[in-house]
Design a protein that fits this description.
There is one protein chain. The protein has helices spanning 3-11, 18-30, 35-48, 52-63, 91-101, 120-124, 136-146, 159-170, 177-190, 211-227, 249-260, 266-282, 289-301, 304-315, 320-324, 326-333, 352-362, 403-416, and strands spanning 79-83, 106-110, 148-152, 195-202, 231-238, 246-247, 335-340, 345-350, 378-381, 388-389, 394-400, 417-420, 430-434. It is an alpha/beta fold. The protein folds into three domains: 3-49, Transferase, Pyrimidine Nucleoside Phosphorylase, Chain C (Transferase, Pyrimidine Nucleoside Phosphorylase, Chain A, domain 3, Up-down Bundle), CATH 1.20.970.10; 79-323, 3-Layer(aba) Sandwich (Pyrimidine Nucleoside Phosphorylase, Chain A, domain 2), CATH 3.40.1030.10; 334-420, Aldehyde Oxidoreductase, domain 3. A four-stranded mixed beta sheet has the order 1-4-5-13, sandwiched between helices. Helix 10 (211-227) links the parallel strand 4 and strand 5. The protein is globular, with a radius of gyration of 22 Å. The two termini are 35 Å apart.
Length: 437
């Protein structure tokens, strides 16, 4: 087989065979196909696209390029959840213990964040002692015993994706639906889950800016999952403004705990329930959304979800006293600055992308892969889009550790806030749920 012919066929808009896709992934990972040829193929895919069948074959080849986790020793249907990323998105910290408390095993591999704010592992590592590195035996035993474990992604999970993403990043081919979908799904497939629920973000603070783009990506990923024998559902959720009230790793852990206690912001609770319900459905705990919500409400109201969260953290080395004193730990490590309304009216916009950038400037996220994260800094919102404010009312509170960062952060956040005299309708949080056609 010849790479020149593969490039030519895709350049002409032809469908590549499974053998051709397996060939270029395998040979590229081995180093036998040079970057300049793979760049040409990526650009051809960018312009000509791929069918759902091609994209599923590409995903399978990428998943098979490295380690594939075997979770068969875990009893029951293993359900995974993935978010395409957003500002203040701490739903895994809420959803995973709820689902586990309902009796469905959650064996999850999560990443560290690059960009606005930390990933799930960054958030959990804000708790002193938390260990994100378990052996396979420890991982399996913990899920069998307590229904929940969350660890960092192994270094050899879908190495083809790492190589291809680095090349896409420098060849302006990142924003291709087949390449985005195969990148996400290859890691999910390799991680060993039986079923997958996807939270596809759309809006100002998301990679997908339009609902049409988000639907296209969601449909593509659902088709991949189903083609590779994983029952898959995608929820398209709004990311025009930050999710919940807290942004920043330790601050988001605190907010997740409040939701599990039955408190917390309505939008975070609503999305968490929707995602948990879909996980219970793909995990075959129930086929009814109504029944799923009953299970979820019972897990929260009885305290079982919160108990599951604490037990899981304790089993992975977290200091329980540190969790209970997290608010004080944050206060001891940060200063506070209030950002107030500059006019009277209704908040029409809290631009998530700009607010995310501000929290990254504080040190809550990474501009480059190896940057250190400050677990305690962040932003706490007291008002959200649609709320009425008077001049001088506190909209949010910045928790910072270095005075030098504060001025630029305040400027970015002020630019992200828009106030109008007209009443603003609440933004729709859940746009659509995509299932197998």
């Amino acid at each position: 087989m010849d790479m020149y012919d593969v490039i030519t066929r895709k350049k002409l808009g032809e469908e590549l065979s499974k053998d051709e896709i397996d060939f270029f992934i395998k040979e590229y990972v081995k180093g036998d196909i040079p970057d300049y040829q793979m760049s040409a193929l990526l650009m051809a895919i960018f312009f000509k696209g791929m069918s759902y069948r091609e994209t599923a074959d590409l995903t399978a080849a990428m998943a098979a390029s490295g380690e594939q986790i075997d979770l068969t020793a875990i009893k029951g249907i293993k359900v995974d959840k993935h978010s395409t990323g957003g500002v203040g998105d701490k739903t895994t910290l809420v959803v995973a213990p709820i689902v586990a408390a309902c009796g469905l095993p959650v064996a999850k591999m999560s990443g560290r964040g690059l960009g606005h704010t930390g990933g799930t592992i960054d958030k959990l590592e804000a708790i002193k002692g938390y260990n994100s590195e378990l052996t396979t035996e420890q991982f399996v035993k913990q899920v069998n015993d307590y229904k929940l474990a969350i660890v960092g992604q192994t270094g050899n999970l879908a190495p083809a994706d790492k190589k291809l993403y680095a090349l896409r990043d420098v060849t302006s081919t990142v924003d291709s639906i087949p390449l985005i979908a195969s990148s996400i799904m290859s890691k999910k497939i390799a991680a060993g889950a039986d079923a997958i629920v996807l939270d596809v973000k759309v809006g100002n603070g998301a990679f997908m800016k339009s609902l049409a783009e988000a639907e296209e990506l969601a449909n593509c990923m659902v088709s991949i999952g189903e083609a590779l024998n994983r029952r898959t559902i995608a929820v398209i959720s709004d990311m025009e403004q930050p999710l919940g009230s807290a942004i920043g790793n330790a601050n988001e852990v605190l907010e997740a705990i409040r939701v599990l206690q039955g408190n917390g912001p309505e939008d975070l609770l609503e999305l968490s329930k929707v995602l948990a319900a879909q996980m219970l459905i793909v995990g075959e705990k129930t086929s009814s959304t109504v029944d799923a919500y009953k299970l979820i409400d019972n897990a929260i109201n009885t305290g079982e979800a919160l108990d599951t969260f604490y037990k899981f953290l304790e089993m992975q080395g977290a200091n329980i006293n540190d969790i209970d004193n997290l608010e004080q730990v944050i206060s001891n490590n940060t200063e506070r600055f209030k950002i107030c309304a500059l006019a009277t009216g209704y908040i029409s916009e809290l631009a998530a992308e700009q607010i995310g950038r501000a929290t990254m400037l504080l040190g809550a996220g990474r501009a480059v892969k190896d940057a250190n994260i400050n677990p305690f800094v962040g932003v706490i919102f007291h008002k959200k889009a649609g709320d009425y404010v008077k001049t001088g009312d506190t909209i949010c509170e910045v928790r910072y550790s270095e005075e030098i960062q504060l001025q630029s952060v305040v400027s970015v956040i002020n630019n992200a806030i828009k106030i109008t005299k007209n009443v603003v309708q609440s933004q729709k949080l859940i746009h659509k749920i995509i299932t197998k056609k």
